[in-house]
TrEMBL record:
Name this protein carries in UniProt: WavE lipopolysaccharide synthesis
Organism of derivation: Rhizobium deserti
InterPro entries in the cross-refs: WavE (IPR011122)
Length: 352
């Protein structure tokens, strides 16, 4: 079904003198894993992120030194890949949650779009530079499964693959509709372009919950968000609403669970991270966390949703919903700090 000479691997992320060796080793691994495929790298940042306005205040010698280092990095990576591109500077927006973590959503959007401009093959694997998937072609089993179930996409020409972390179950911990992981996409290049054909996130949306209260049904985890939508929702809700599905109003809008799973069922594949050899060292601990079992949808969950439908899948979650309710409502009331940190998760681990 998939031929390597029809595949472009688009890796995107920052490149600096500090991580240059790591980037080059990663490129070697991609070459070894996918001989015959095209390899593109889209840089979100070269050496240092500096706006044109900020650079006006620099002394000329500092500007020259930065440009010299950037050229060195660009030359090294360009020689190792089939195509190298650099995104224009995008300023960070307000943090996604009420914390101080940098929000580079618009930088990611700009980088992916620049990278996709130069992809000419039928299929594309778009992936973060801190990740690896050793055998993405193993997804052929999932496409065959969809054919057996006679599932026809209504957003794309063919279903698009997403990672299980963090493709969220909209019924459980963080009840966020259309939250399908943005770690990677695999599928037809035209479909991936369609998915990423979005405008930058506005500062107004990024600061939504500084100006408006959270919905009354929001749980403690959902109240942590500052932004009206997550980056994942920004992508999926746009294309879904343009094709007949309900437009998302805010990040945890109620009553959209079944519709979310129907969009997932028809148009996406949740990657089997073990079968395909997906690794992300930065998030390795996520795989073994108990919360992951309640937050994220697995390939096995996706197959149940495809075969039985979203409504029947939701009926299988009754016990998990009860445990999540206990976790969210009883955990804050535990008096002892040690028990508050450990007991609920140990209880969940014992149950499951």
């Amino acid at each position: 079904m998939f031929a390597l000479n029809e595949l472009t691997i688009l890796v995107h992320g920052p490149v600096t003198a500090g991580n240059l060796e790591e980037v080059l080793k990663s490129i070697e691994m991609w070459r070894e894993a996918y001989p015959g495929a095209y390899l593109h790298f889209a840089a979100s940042m070269i050496e240092r992120d500096v706006s044109a306005i900020e650079m006006q205040f620099w002394q000329q010698q500092h500007v020259s030194e930065l440009e010299k280092r950037r050229k060195l990095v660009i030359d090294q990576v360009s020689q190792a890949v089939d195509h190298f591109s650099v995104a224009d500077y995008q300023a960070p927006i307000a943090p996604l949650k009420f914390d101080d973590k940098v929000n580079n959503t618009n930088k990611m959007i700009a980088t992916v779009k620049v990278g996709l401009e130069n992809v000419s093959t039928k299929f594309c694997l778009r992936i973060r530079s801190d990740m690896m998937v050793a055998n993405i072609l193993a997804c052929e089993e999932d496409y065959k499964f969809l054919a057996q179930q006679a599932v026809v996409p209504d957003l794309f020409n063919q279903q698009v693959v997403v990672a299980p972390f963090f493709t969220l179950n909209p019924f459980l911990l963080e009840r966020l509709p259309y939250h399908f992981s943005d770690w990677l996409n695999f599928g037809q290049t035209a479909d991936i372009r369609k998915l990423w054909d979005v405008s930058p996130v506005s500062e107004i949306d990024a600061r939504h919950y500084q100006m408006y209260p959270h919905a009354s049904h929001s749980n403690v985890l959902e109240r942590e968000f500052r932004s009206r939508f997550t980056p994942e929702q920004h992508l999926v809700s746009r294309i879904a609403s343009h094709n007949g599905y309900k437009k998302l109003d805010h990040h945890n809008e109620a009553g959209m669970e079944i519709e979310t799973l129907e969009v997932l069922r028809r148009n996406f594949i949740v990657l089997d991270h073990q079968r395909t050899g997906m690794t992300n060292p930065k998030y390795d601990r996520v795989k073994s966390m108990v919360q992951t079992r309640f937050q994220c949808l697995t390939n096995r969950d996706w197959r149940i949703i495809v075969a039985d439908g979203p409504a029947k899948f939701s009926e299988t979650l009754a016990w998990k919903k009860f445990v999540v309710w206990c976790y969210l409502n009883l955990k804050p009331k535990l008096a002892w700090s040690r028990l508050r940190r450990t007991l609920p998760m140990r209880l969940l681990w014992w149950i499951f």
